Amino acid sequence: MALGCPYGTHRVLGPLGVFPQPAKFINNDFSTLYDNEILIEVEVLNIDSASFSQINTQAEEDPAKIAQIILETVIQRGKQHNPVTGSGGMLIGKIKTIGSALQSRPLNVGDRIAILVSLSLTPLHITEIIAVHKHVDQVEIRGEAILFESGIYAKLPEDMPQKLALAVLDVAGAPAQTAKIVKPGDTVVVIGGGGKSGLLCLHEACKRVGVTGKVIGISHSEAGVARMKESGLPVIPLQGDACDALWVLHQIKGLTDGKLADLTLNMVNIPQTELASILATKDKGIVYFFSMATSFTAAALGAEGVGKDVTMLIGNGYTEGHAEIALAILRENPRLRKIYERTYA
Amino acid sequence: MALGCPYGTHRVLGPLGVFPQPAKFINNDFSTLYDNEILIEVEVLNIDSASFSQINTQAEEDPAKIAQIILETVIQRGKQHNPVTGSGGMLIGKIKTIGSALQSRPLNVGDRIAILVSLSLTPLHITEIIAVHKHVDQVEIRGEAILFESGIYAKLPEDMPQKLALAVLDVAGAPAQTAKIVKPGDTVVVIGGGGKSGLLCLHEACKRVGVTGKVIGISHSEAGVARMKESGLPVIPLQGDACDALWVLHQIKGLTDGKLADLTLNMVNIPQTELASILATKDKGIVYFFSMATSFTAAALGAEGVGKDVTMLIGNGYTEGHAEIALAILRENPRLRKIYERTYA
Ligand SMILES: NC(=O)c1ccc[n+]([C@@H]2O[C@H](COP(=O)([O-])OP(=O)(O)OC[C@H]3O[C@@H](n4cnc5c(N)ncnc54)[C@H](OP(=O)(O)O)[C@@H]3O)[C@@H](O)[C@H]2O)c1
Ligand SMILES: NC(=O)c1ccc[n+]([C@@H]2O[C@H](COP(=O)([O-])OP(=O)(O)OC[C@H]3O[C@@H](n4cnc5c(N)ncnc54)[C@H](OP(=O)(O)O)[C@@H]3O)[C@@H](O)[C@H]2O)c1
User: Fold this and answer.
1) Which of A53, A188, A196, B336 has the most other CB atoms within 10 Å of its CB?
2) Domain residues for B143?
3) Which class for A283: exposed (0-12), middle (13-18), buried (19 or more C-beta within 10 A)?
4) At CA A44, angle to CA A270 and CA A326, rounded to 5?
5) Can you tell me the distance from the alpha carbon of B213 to that of B210, in angstroms, rounded to the nearest whole number?
6) Is B1 part of any domain?
7) Where are the beta strands (DSSP E) in chain A?
8) Where would I find the L-erythro-3,5-diaminohexanoate dehydrogenase N-terminal domain in this sequence (chains A, B) (predicted)?
9) Nearby residues of A200 by Cβ (< 8 Å), 6 or more positions away
């Protein structure tokens, strides 16, 4: 066969000219494969949390109806791209065929991998839905999917349960970026430090700032603060509401002799915390927004409005080596692994 | 008097605890001033374009009604914060009083300055509306305003007309950031290069990449491409639609031997150009989003979906020295000044 587009546009059926993610229909006929495609025998769909709860409501919480809705979406669109929420999720499966153009990859037929690009752009064909696991947003299926040449993935580690690995891979971009931007001696503030991505970032931040640095974590609930403490990391834990920008400013000022943070990581799951993140950071410092609730304009105009010369980064879900960096954290920190097993897996 | 909050929260009347920008009501009684406030005798309000066109429509294009609507907003809110669009604009005026805590600033009573923070957070009191200049979104008034300690401003230059300086100051953040991130030898793509901010960025990019670099500008219209050519800058001009990510990718690939850009600057005024910006950029490169039409999630998920390890920056309207850097461009490049005078001033 021929080479397809590395981004998979060769499988877009409509509207023509767009990428697989915004496309309404994509081709999920896998009887002929392109030379730069990888065919996966799918085992589990890990539906995005927003999408799963929408489907669950529409199905009146009936697993049979949930299965029906998913089947219909995939028949109509050629991918599990929730038409209401617009989101997807990820999948786990075994490699069935590796296209001739990708033979140099460190992959073998039979390897179990997680596809880290969204289901909302992944060609999928379902033969049978085996089981719906409502408490973890997962669906066991028999079926096949395509990974495009540009698609990112991770081999599943042998030394941890699949569910644990999935929980880490879901937020892998954040700790990997943290590892890359934190410098020794830095003062780092992690807003949402008690959460799934926040805890991993606290670990990386502590490791990178070293003994001359300082790491402060902010969480909203007592449980979140307890998780930060239980991690055993040398973090200064704060409990409070990051929507209250003045409170955050005063706390961080107090803890840094008025110098503020070199780097603030925003890992919350709620809107309107842009200004707190900006104010916690010193001039010429960096604010890293990983939260999907971030508003571009609130950040841009917020910094201008208070005259803050900070560099503001949009959290890219991908950075080289992100899966390995994130998975390594649970090996390095057994206490964090315990929290993760209890809370997210 | 006492010191106020550097960010002006001492003038917020409601809701309490928020910053002046999101506030509904702020105190515009200037009979007592705080020691870290600067009182301005206002001459001209430069209403934000989105706000002005909303007011114009509501006023059925009648200047008297436009004046009435502005007066009412300022009486109700204590600031020209358009309740429909949420936006403000900027103002020009002469310094009347400098608070005792700010005496060390390089400013004198009588200096004419432009306030570069939004009118949507600036305490304003209007005594009289003198004239409404509809074609330039400006309103001449008699009145006073407060600049907070953290508020940014620029002295108006002596060597250019006020309207020309205002046009440049409106987008000053973009060329100043460009100057700071471009390195010699870089390949730079400016999407929206024929626009108001794009042209200034093209100038800075050409200056910084030097003879070993390459600068490519993309504009949608023939007029935009003509402006890029007329600038006399060594730019490779492209005409096309940046919503077509594949077209952009192919063009930039072709012009860079497949290597793509080290830095892509997004300066458009329309949505859905995130993916084109990401695809035009090489791995480990930088994408700088200045456009307010940027969607945070489209950028974050877009980069992940195509597996691109790029650093994505949110365009901060402010960076140190931004006004001087931007104004200097028109002095350095007389052709650009001519285009600016004809097109934007
Ligand atoms: N950019 C990407 O590619 C990407 C990928 C995956 C996820 N994300 C985003 O990352 C964010 C975090 O995900 P997650 O899985 O880590 O979420 P999570 O486990 O729910 O953690 C959220 C954290 O935010 C804290 N928080 C919530 N409201 C707060 C408030 N008002 N003040 C202070 N802290 C508050 C929570 O504190 P408590 O626990 O104490 O309440 C918790 O620590 C989400 O927005 C998600 O969309 C982005
Ligand atoms: N971050 C901040 O603080 C800040 C401050 C001020 C402004 N901004 C934002 O900066 C952006 C640009 O402002 P501006 O005043 O420079 O705008 P502008 O003068 O209107 O320029 C817009 C440019 O985008 C180009 N364009 C429009 N549609 C396009 C398409 N489909 N494909 C390719 N190019 C296209 C235009 O090309 P043609 O002229 O050829 O049609 C033009 O070159 C706006 O979004 C504004 O909100 C941000």
Assistant:
1) A188
2) 9-156
3) exposed
4) 55
5) 6
6) no
7) 12-14, 25-26, 38-47, 89-98, 112-115, 124-133, 138-147, 153-155, 187-191, 214-219, 235-239, 261-266, 281-289, 311-314
8) 10-157
9) A168, A171, A174, A175, A178, A326, A329, A336
Q: How far apart are CA A293 and CA A281, in angstroms?
A: 19
Q: What contacts A211, CB < 8 A, 6 or more positions away? A: none
Which among B283, B304, B314 has the least Cβ separation from residue A312?
A: B314
Residue B141 · residue B40 · CB < 8 Å? no
Q: Are residues A180 and A128 in the same domain?
A: no
Interface of B with A in 147-186 (CB under 8 A): 150-152, 173
Q: Which amino acid is at B281?
A: T
Q: Does A324 touch chain B (CB under 8 A)?
A: no
- Domain membership flag for residue A161: no
Any domain includes B62: yes
A304/B121 touch (CB, cutoff 8 Å), yes or no? no
Q: Are residue A226 and residue A274 in the same domain, yes or no?
A: yes
| ipTM of the prediction | 0.93
Q: Is the peptide bond before A15 cis (omega within 30 degrees of 0)?
A: yes
> Which of A21, A299, A304 shows the shortest C-beta gap to B318?
A304
Alpha-carbon distance of B227 to B195, in angstroms, equals 8
Rounded-to-integer distance, Cα B213 and Cα B205, Å: 9
CATH number at residue B316: 3.40.50.720
Q: H helices of B132-291, where?
A: 162-170, 173-181, 196-209, 222-230, 245-255, 274-279
Asked which of A156, A184, A205 is the last residue of a domain, the reply is: A156
Out of B204, B216, B220, mutate this one to test ligand 2's pocket (max ligand atoms within 8 Å of CB): namely: B220
Domain match, B110 and B223 both? no
Query: Which of 95-134 (B) contact A at CB < 8 A?
Result: 116-118, 121
For B10, nearest residue in chain A (alpha carbons): A246
What's the Cα-to-Cα distance from A219 to each of A35, A230, A282, A330, rounded to whole Å? 48, 13, 21, 21
Q: Are residues A13 and A106 in the same domain?
A: yes
- Each residue's pLDDT tens digit in chain A (345 positions)? 789 999 999 999 999 888 999 899 999 999 999 999 999 999 999 998 889 999 999 999 999 999 999 999 999 999 999 999 888 999 999 999 999 999 999 999 999 999 999 999 999 999 999 999 998 889 999 999 999 999 999 999 989 998 899 889 989 999 999 999 999 999 999 999 999 999 999 999 999 999 999 999 999 999 999 999 999 999 999 999 999 999 999 999 999 999 999 999 999 989 999 999 999 999 999 999 999 899 999 999 899 999 999 999 999 989 999 999 999 999 999 999 999 999 988
Under a CB-based contact definition with an 8 Å cutoff, are residues A146 and A292 in contact? no
CA distances from A5 to A105, A150, B306 (A): 18, 9, 11
